[in-house]
């Protein structure tokens, strides 16, 4: 047997399989035996010490990003699983695995086109009941490649300051390298400064390596690819009736939506998932959430 698992106690790789460890909620888990320190252990994978099986957890992630609230997912589990999970537990799964997968996918090498589009959506986040101010204005900013429809970078932020916008564009620059020649935005006056910080846009068009294409809706139409994406985002997030809680929670939920849009659901315009064109990654199983989580933990 080719060992890729090491003993958590002595870090030795001379191990053998030794039966199964079974729980009522998660089922059977392979147990291992270390020949050096005589310890028995189970593999500390992405679902280590989780009280529910991976299929149930990834089912909840998929239902949530397909438009079902955490409370409705909880009602769904009551009908099909003997041990139910609370809606707050489901939300914690969303936070945990959205962050885990994003840490993996953010480092994938991208093959994109020559144009990216950047835009922002305004949101109103309801704070905790302990806070004095109940509502806070926030922004979700994202950058999309028009060729592959891949969301290159995104962030949910307190306000769209020059530095905050530049940080999102800097990530897009890091992930796309020198592939981008045109950056399309709306008429927000701060974008030239943002692009100077992130992409080195010059004040003199003849000396600039990139072209800043400004599209104002009232004059020249819409930035259709990214506006189509925003329609999908609004359709999904409108059932929230606004984000509730910390900005960290909202940020992790939106990172999970980025994963869902890029890797899980097919785009009608390209008839495949954006990652299939933009990356060399190939997901072979029907449960792409589970495959991504296992790749992220490896």
Give the arrangement of secondary structure elements.
Blueprint: E1 15-23, E2 27-34, E3 40-42, H1 54-65, H2 70-80, H3 87-105, E4 115-126, E5 135-145, E6 151-157, H4 162-176, E7 182-185, H5 191-199, E8 211-214, H6 217-220, H7 224-237, H8 247-264, H9 274-278, H10 288-297
Parallel strand pairs: 4-7, 7-8
Antiparallel strand pairs: 1-2, 2-3, 4-5, 5-6
Defining traits:
298 residues; alpha/beta; N-terminal domain of TfIIb; Nucleotidyltransferase, domain 5; 3 domains; five-stranded mixed β-sheet; three-stranded antiparallel β-sheet; 39% helix
Written as H for each helix and E for each strand, in order along the chain, the element string is: EEEHHHEEEHEHEHHHHH
- Give helix % range: 25-40%
> CATH-wise, what's the superfamily of the largest domain?
Ribonuclease H-like superfamily/Ribonuclease H
CATH architecture tag of the largest domain: 2-Layer Sandwich
Structural class: alpha/beta
Beta content:
15-25%
- For the biggest β-sheet, the strand order reads 6-5-4-7-8
- Poorly predicted runs of 5 or more residues: none
Q: Helix segment count?
A: 10
CATH class group of the largest domain: Alpha Beta
In total, the number of domains comes to 3
How far do the termini sit from each other? Answer: 19 Å
| Tally of DSSP β-strands | 8
Sheet having the most strands? 5 strands, mixed
Determine Rg (CA atoms, Å): 22 Å
The best one-word shape is: globular
Rounded mean pLDDT is 86
CATH topology of the largest domain: Nucleotidyltransferase, domain 5
Oligomer type: single chain
